[in-house]
C-alpha cells in the first residue's frame, strides 16, 4: 500500500533536504526524466517542454517557490532582448540594455547583498536597521550572469534573439547547470536546441566518464576529507597546531576543487547524454605555473565571463599599463564579491587581482628582455612556478573559507608560530584514511593528463549499453557503501 502522505512529502520542497546530484531522490528523478525525454526525443517541441518542466520542478525541489524568479527573469530578458534588437535608435537600445542590467543586478543585489549593506550602514551610522534575513535563491548568481551575457550579446549584434519563449526558458532553466553552473552562454547553447537528438557511443562514453568521475570527486574525495578533517580545522583554528592547519588548508584546496569540478563534470556529462555539449569548466588548475594560467583553468566559465563582460568593457589592456592593473583589480574584486556578501570574499578577490597585476609585470618584463628559458632551467622554473602558484592560491583559500578575518588570521598565526612538526606521526595515525585520500586526489590531479581522460572516454564508449548500465549500477552501489551519512551541501551551492 502506497503511503500517499509520505510520497507527497518526498515530492514537495523541503528546505532541510534540497535535491542534489548525489542524492537518492535525484537518481529516481533522473531515471524518470530520461524515460520521458527519450519518449519524445524525435520532436524538438517535445524535448523542450519535457526538459523545461523537469528543470523547473528540479529547481522547485531545490529552493521552493523561488522557481518563479527563473520564469520571471526569462520573461523579462526574452522581451527586452527582442526590443533591443528591433530598436533603431542607439539611445533606446542603450536604455533597454541598462534597464535589463538594472533588473537582473537589482534582483541579485536584493537577495544576496541587502543584509550586507544594512550591516555596513548600521556600523557607520550606529543605526539599528533590522536585517531582512532573506533566503538566497539557489543558482541566482549563475542564471543572472547568463541573462546578462544574452542581452549584452544581442545589444552588440553578436547573437540574434530567440523567437520562441520556451527555447529561452529551456536555456535558462536547463537543470544540469542551473544551480552551480557552468555559466553557459546562449550563443553556445540555443543553436543546439534545434538540432536532432542523436546519442552515439562517444556521447555515452564521455557522459558516463564525466558523471562517474564527478561523483567520485564529490562524494569519495571531497565529502570525506571535509567531514573528517577540514571542517574541524576551520571551525576553530586556534585549537590546532600549525601542521594541522597547513594540512587543513591543503585539504580544503582539494575539497573545493573536487566539490565544484565534480558537480561541473556531472552537469556536463548529463548534458552530453541529453544531446548538449557544454564547455569544460576546469582544466587541472593546480598544474598552473602562474596565477594568470590558474584563472584560465579554474572556473573557466566565470573567468571568461568576467573577462568578456567586465574586464574588456572597462578597457582591458588597451588604455595603458596602469589602467590595465586597475581593471584587473576591479574585475577580481567584483568577482570576489560575486561569490558572497562578505569582506572575506572581497579580500580574496583583491589578493588575486594584485597577483594578476604583478604577473602581468613579470610577463611584460620577460617580453621586453626577450628572456627565454630552455633545457633544465625551463623545467625548473615551471615546477617552481607551480609550487608558488599553488601555495598562493592555498593562502587565498584561507580567507575564502574562514568565517571571519579573525579565524583566517588565527589559522595563519598557528602555521607561522605554532607549527609543531613533531606531532606528524600521531596526526598520521589519527587521520590515515584522510591523508591517503588527499594523496590520491592530488596524484590524480597532477598525474592525469587530457590524454588519460580521452582513453577512459573511448574505453567506456566501446562498452555495450547493458555493460554501461551495469557499470553505473555497481558504481552507485559502491558510492552508497562509502558515502557519509551526513549530507554535504556543495560549496558553490551558496553562490
Describe this protein's structure.
The protein is an all-alpha fold. It has 21 helices and no strands. It is globular. α2 packs antiparallel against α3 and α5 packs antiparallel against α6 (140-155). Helix content is 74%, strand content 0%. The chain has helices at residues 4-11, 24-39, 44-63, 67-86, 90-125, 140-155, 165-173, 175-178, 186-193, 201-235, 242-273, 291-297, 300-314, 321-339, 343-369, 375-401, 405-417, 424-430, 432-447, 450-461, 465-482. The chain has two domains: 13-197, no CATH class; 202-488, no CATH class. The model has no long low-confidence stretch (mean pLDDT 88).
Quick overview:
The chain is mostly helical. Helix content is 74%, strand content 0%.
Describe this protein with a few key phrases.
mainly alpha; 0% strand; 495 residues; globular; single chain; 2 domains; 74% helix
Amino acid at each position: 500500500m502506497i503511503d500517499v502522505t509520505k510520497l507527497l512529502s518526498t515530492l514537495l520542497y523541503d528546505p532541510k533536504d534540497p535535491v542534489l546530484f548525489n542524492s537518492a531522490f535525484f537518481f529516481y528523478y533522473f531515471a524518470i526524466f530520461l524515460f520521458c525525454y527519450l519518449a519524445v526525443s524525435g520532436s524538438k517541441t517535445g524535448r523542450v517542454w519535457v526538459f523545461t518542466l523537469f528543470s523547473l520542478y528540479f529547481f522547485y525541489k531545490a529552493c521552493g517557490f523561488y522557481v518563479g524568479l527563473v520564469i520571471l527573469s526569462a520573461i523579462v530578458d526574452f522581451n527586452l532582448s527582442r526590443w533591443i534588437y528591433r530598436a533603431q535608435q542607439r539611445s533606446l537600445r542603450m536604455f533597454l540594455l541598462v534597464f535589463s542590467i538594472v533588473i537582473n543586478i537589482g534582483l541579485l543585489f536584493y537577495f544576496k547583498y541587502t543584509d550586507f549593506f544594512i550591516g555596513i550602514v548600521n556600523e557607520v551610522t550606529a543605526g539599528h536597521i533590522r536585517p531582512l534575513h532573506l533566503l538566497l535563491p539557489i543558482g541566482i548568481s549563475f542564471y543572472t550572469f547568463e541573462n546578462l551575457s544574452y542581452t549584452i550579446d544581442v545589444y552588440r549584434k553578436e547573437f540574434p534573439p530567440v523567437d520562441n519563449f520556451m527555447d529561452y526558458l529551456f536555456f535558462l532553466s536547463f537543470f544540469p547547470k542551473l544551480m552551480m553552473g557552468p555559466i553557459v552562454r546562449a550563443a553556445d547553447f540555443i543553436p543546439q536546441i534545434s538540432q536532432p537528438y542523436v546519442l552515439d557511443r562517444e556521447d555515452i562514453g564521455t557522459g558516463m566518464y564525466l558523471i562517474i568521475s564527478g561523483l567520485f570527486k564529490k562524494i569519495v574525495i571531497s565529502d570525506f576529507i571535509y567531514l573528517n578533517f577540514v571542517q574541524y580545522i576551520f571551525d576553530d583554528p586556534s585549537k590546532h597546531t600549525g601542521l594541522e592547519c597547513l594540512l587543513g588548508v591543503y585539504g580544503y584546496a582539494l575539497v573545493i576543487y573536487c566539490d565544484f569540478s565534480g558537480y561541473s563534470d556531472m552537469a556536463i556529462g548529463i548534458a552530453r547524454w541529453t544531446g548538449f555539449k557544454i564547455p569544460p569548466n576546469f582544466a587541472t588548475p593546480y598544474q598552473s605555473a602562474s596565477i594568470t594560467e590558474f584563472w584560465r583553468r579554474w572556473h573557466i566559465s566565470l573567468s571568461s565571463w568576467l573577462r568578456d563582460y567586465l574586464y574588456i568593457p572597462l578597457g582591458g589592456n588597451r588604455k595603458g599599463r596602469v589602467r590595465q592593473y586597475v581593471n584587473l583589480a576591479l574585475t577580481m574584486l567584483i568577482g570576489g564579491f560575486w561569490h558572497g556578501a562578505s569582506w572575506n570574499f572581497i579580500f580574496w578577490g583583491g589578493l588575486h587581482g594584485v597577483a594578476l597585476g604583478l604577473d602581468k609585470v613579470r610577463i611584460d618584463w620577460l617580453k621586453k628582455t626577450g628572456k627565454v628559458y630552455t633545457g633544465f632551467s625551463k623545467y625548473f622554473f615551471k615546477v617552481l612556478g607551480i609550487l608558488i602558484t599553488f601555495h598562493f592560491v592555498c593562502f587565498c583559500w584561507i580567507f575564502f573559507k574562514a568565517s571571519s578575518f579573525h579565524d583566517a588570521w588565527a589559522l595563519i598565526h598557528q602555521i607561522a608560530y605554532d607549527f609543531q612538526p613533531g606531532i606528524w606521526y600521531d596526526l598520521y595515525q589519527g587521520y590515515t584514511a584522510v591523508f591517503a585520500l588527499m594523496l590520491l586526489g592530488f596524484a590524480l590531479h597532477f598525474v592525469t593528463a587530457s590524454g588519460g581522460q580521452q582513453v577512459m572516454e573511448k574505453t567506456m564508449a566501446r562498452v555495450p549499453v547493458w555493460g554501461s548500465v551495469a557499470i553505473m549500477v555497481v558504481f552507485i552501489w559502491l558510492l552508497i557503501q562509502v558515502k557519509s551519512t551526513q549530507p554535504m551541501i556543495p560549496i558553490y551551492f551558496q553562490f
